[in-house]
Amino acid sequence: xxxxxxxxxxxxxxxxxxxxxxxxxxxxxxxxxxxxxxxxxxxxxxxxxxxxxxxxxxxxxxxxxxxxxxxxxx
Length: 74
Prior knowledge:
The protein is mainly β. The protein has one helix at 29-35; strands at 2-7, 18-22, 45-48, 51-52, 64-68.
């Protein structure tokens, strides 16, 4: 199974912007966060194919996962 993962803002620091990751088994967003060493509490929004998703959502082959930290401003 191949998933395209897109990282935004500070999630890119020391990582990459866009990468295809391969897995032998079904994975969820929480698993991807663990592999990337991103603490779940630091996640603002996760999108699968452009749709808001919870961390327990399972990914399917060829899904696009976008991970954003919390966005602030004022």
